[in-house]
Amino acid sequence: xxxxxxxxxxxxxxPAVTTTMQILDxxxxxxxxxxxxxxxxxxxxxxxxxxRRAVSMGCEIQNHSRTHGNMTEMTxxxxxxxxxxxxxxxxxxxxxxxxxxxxxxxxxxxxxxETVGLPFIQGVGAEDWLDEVTAQMRYERILAQAKxxxxxxxxxxxxxxxxxxxxxxxxxxxxxxxxxxxxVSELFREKGVTPKVGVMxxxxxxxx
Length: 208
Fold this sequence. Notes:
The protein is α/β, with parallel strands linked by helices. The protein contains 7 helices and 7 strands. It has helices at 19-30, 45-56, 76-94, 110-115, 135-145, 161-176, 184-190, and strands at 5-12, 35-38, 60-63, 120-121, 151-155, 179-182, 200-201. The strands form 2 sheets. Strands 1, 2, 3, 5 and 6 form a 5-stranded parallel sheet that branches. It has a two-stranded parallel ribbon with strand order 4-7. Helix 1 (19-30) links the parallel strand 1 and strand 2 (35-38).
């Protein structure tokens, strides 16, 4: 198990042609990976290229449902269809199926835990889908929650320029504080934790 301070940067609601590419430019600049939790209905030929670029840089693509609906209101069949569609589209685009799932709105019930078939990822966030939360506020909120083993939850939806700016500030600051950035799957592996199906993680050391 690694004693280093390790942290995972994750992004929801893409892939997006403009914003995800801007995030990838920053990741490439600092030579770090991230994990992208994608919405299946956003995957097309153009965004497939974006995902392939991400994977070529050492990033990973994870599952954030097909439609980003409230899955606590769905039947088992509907939940299964949401997961399968996105996992199939990701595998078709990048050659590997997702290993983790982030529930839309972090809304979870027992049926989802029984049906999805993947570990669930939450993370610490900054309400970065709200325009009134400035880039500086996003940066400060994430920085205040950073600790070893934590998963950071941000959004790369199209046009989310304030998060792009926040990430540009956040990465060098966290690196200066001694953190190393890894993907979600690497975070579990390096900390010696086996993720459990149907269990939610914000930090690899805490289950709920």
